[in-house]
C-alpha cells in the first residue's frame, strides 16, 4: 500500500509539472541477461557473493556484456577518463546522457524542480534503460523532442566514437568531436540502439550522481553486470578549475581571489557538497559492503595524470577490458601535448604530469584555508596534504598528493 501511495504521489507531481515521466523497470526481450537461467547461475555462483568478481557467461558460454559507470564531479578530469574508454573499439561510450534529465527538471535559473530523491530515481531509470541499449526513454528528456526518433540535440554526441561511426553516422573515416558534430549532427536513436547492442561493453560518464550509495540498486542488479569507476580530485583543485572555467557562476570567488577578502555573501555550498559526497562515498567503499565487492574502484585524478598508462591498465584490468592497439599512443599524445593558447574548457589535451598541481599557483591562500576547514576529513581520507602557509602552497617541488594505493574491493 505504501509503495502504491508513493507511485501515486510521484505521478501527481509529474502531472502538475505537465511532464509525462515513464519509468521502465523491466528488461527488454532483446537483451540476454547474464545468469538468468538456473544453469547459468549454478555455473557462475551467487552473483552478489562472487568474490572473484568474474563475469558470468551466458547460455552459449560467451562472456556477458559489461556495463561501466564513470562517476565523477565537474572539473575532476572525467572527460579524459571517459575518453580512455571511448578510444577502445569494444566500448559503446556515452558522454553525460543524464544532462538531459537534469535539463528537463530544471527551471529557467537552472534550479531543480524535482526533489533530490525523485531526480535520482529518474537518473537510475534512464541509466538502466541505456545499459539495456534502449534509447527511447531518453527521447522524453531531449529538447526539442526528437522527430521520428531523430535528434540534433543529443548533448556532446561527438564525444562518442560509436555515435560518429556506422550505422549511426554514415561517415566511414574516423572523426574528431568537432567534425562529428558537423557531419553527424542528426542522431537516429533507433540506429544508436542497434549499434549499442553490437558492442561487448557500454560505458557511461556522469557528473550528476553525487554518491556511489545512490547506485546500489543498479549495482545489485545481476542482469546489469555493472562496475563503478569513481574518479576523485583534490577539492581545492576542483574549485580552482571551476573558478577559472565558470567565471559567471563563480564571480564572487574571483573577487575573493583578487582581493584576498572573503565576500560576506559567498556561497560555499558547492565545495561543501563536493567534500560531503566524496566522504560519504569513500566511507561506504572503505567499509567494504558485500554489494560493492568486485564492483568498485577509486581513482585519484592526480595518480592518473602522473602515470596515465599504468593507471589506465589498472582500470582496464579491473573492468575486464583488453588493451587496444593505439591506446598508448593516444594517451601519450594527450598527456604530453603543448596546450593551445585558448584551450576548450572540455579539452582532454594536457601536459598532465607537469600541470596536475598548478592550481596551487592560482588560488589565494585565504580561499585554500577556508576549503581546508570545510574539507578537512575528505582531504585526509583521500590522501591530500593540507598547507599552513603561502610558501607551502606555492612550493610545487613538494607534492600535496600523498602516495596511496586504493585497491579495488574484490
Mean model confidence by pLDDT: 85
| Category from helices, strands and their pairing | alpha/beta
Strand tally: 7
Radius of gyration: 22 Å
Strand content: 5-15%
Q: Residue ranges: pLDDT <50 for 5 or more in a row?
A: 7-61
Envelope shape:
globular
* Portion in helices: 40-55%
- How far apart, in Å, are the first and last alpha carbons? 38 Å
* String of helices and strands: HHEHEHHHEHEHEHEHHHEHHHHHHH
Largest sheet: 5 strands, parallel
Number of helices: 19
* Strand order across the largest sheet: 2-5-1-6-7
Outline the structure in words.
It is a single chain. The longest helix is centred in the last third of the chain and has 18 residues, at 269-286. With 410 residues, the chain is α/β, with parallel strands linked by helices. It starts with a helix and ends in a 16-residue tail after the last helix. Helix content is 41%, strand content 8%. The strands form 2 sheets. The chain has a 5-stranded parallel beta sheet, sandwiched between helices. It is built from 19 helices and 7 strands. It is globular and about 60 Å long.
Summarize the structure.
By secondary structure, this protein is of the alpha/beta class.
Key phrases:
410 residues; alpha/beta; 5-stranded parallel β-sheet; two-stranded antiparallel ribbon; 19 helices; 7 strands; 41% helix
Amino acid at each position: 500500500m505504501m509503495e502504491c501511495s508513493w507511485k501515486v504521489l510521484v505521478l501527481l507531481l509529474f502531472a502538475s509539472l505537465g511532464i509525462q515521466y515513464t519509468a521502465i523497470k523491466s528488461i527488454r526481450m532483446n537483451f540476454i541477461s547474464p545468469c538468468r537461467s538456473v544453469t547459468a547461475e549454478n555455473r557462475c555462483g551467487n552473483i552478489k557473493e562472487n568474490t572473484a568478481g568474474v563475469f558470468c557467461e551466458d547460455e552459449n558460454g560467451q562472456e556477458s556484456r559489461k556495463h561501466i559507470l564513470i562517476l565523477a564531479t565537474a572539473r575532476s578530469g572525467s572527460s579524459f577518463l571517459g575518453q580512455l574508454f571511448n578510444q577502445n573499439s569494444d566500448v559503446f561510450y556515452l558522454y553525460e546522457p543524464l544532462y538531459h534529465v537534469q535539463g528537463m527538471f530544471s527551471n529557467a535559473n537552472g534550479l531543480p524542480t524535482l526533489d533530490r530523491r525523485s531526480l535520482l530515481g529518474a537518473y537510475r531509470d534512464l541509466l538502466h534503460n541505456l545499459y539495456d541499449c534502449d534509447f527511447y526513454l531518453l527521447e522524453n528528456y531531449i529538447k526539442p523532442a526528437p522527430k521520428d526518433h531523430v535528434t540534433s540535440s543529443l548533448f556532446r554526441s561527438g564525444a562518442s566514437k560509436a555515435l560518429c561511426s556506422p550505422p549511426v553516422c554514415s561517415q566511414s573515416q574516423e572523426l574528431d568531436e568537432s567534425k562529428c558534430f558537423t557531419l553527424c549532427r542528426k542522431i537516429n536513436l533507433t540506429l544508436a540502439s542497434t549499434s549499442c547492442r553490437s558492442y561487448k561493453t557500454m560505458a557511461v560518464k556522469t557528473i550528476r550522481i553525487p554518491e556511489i550509495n545512490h547506485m546500489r540498486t543498479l549495482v545489485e542488479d545481476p542482469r546489469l553486470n555493472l562496475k563503478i569507476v569513481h574518479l576523485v580530485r583534490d577539492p581545492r583543485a576542483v574549485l580552482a578549475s571551476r573558478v577559472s572555467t565558470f567565471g559567471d557562476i563563480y564571480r564572487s570567488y574571483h573577487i575573493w581571489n583578487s582581493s584576498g577578502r572573503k565576500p560576506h555573501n559567498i556561497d560555499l555550498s558547492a565545495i561543501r557538497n563536493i567534500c560531503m559526497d566524496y566522504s560519504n562515498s569513500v566511507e561506504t567503499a572503505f567499509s567494504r559492503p558485500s554489494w560493492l565487492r568486485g564492483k568498485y574502484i577509486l581513482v585519484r585524478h592526480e595518480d592518473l595524470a602522473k602515470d596515465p598508462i599504468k593507471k589506465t591498465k589498472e582500470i582496464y584490468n579491473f573492468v575486464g577490458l583488453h588493451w587496444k592497439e593505439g591506446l598508448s599512443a593516444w594517451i601519450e599524445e594527450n598527456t604530453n601535448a603543448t596546450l593551445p593558447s585558448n584551450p576548450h574548457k572540455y579539452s582532454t589535451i594536457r601536459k598532465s604530469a607537469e600541470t596536475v598541481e598548478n592550481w596551487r599557483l592560482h588560488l589565494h591562500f585565504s580561499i585554500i584555508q577556508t576549503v581546508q576547514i570545510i574539507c578537512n576529513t575528505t582531504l585526509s581520507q583521500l590522501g591530500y596534504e593540507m598547507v599552513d602557509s603561502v610558501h607551502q602552497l606555492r612550493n610545487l617541488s613538494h607534492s600535496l598528493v600523498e602516495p596511496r594505493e586504493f585497491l579495488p574491493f574484490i
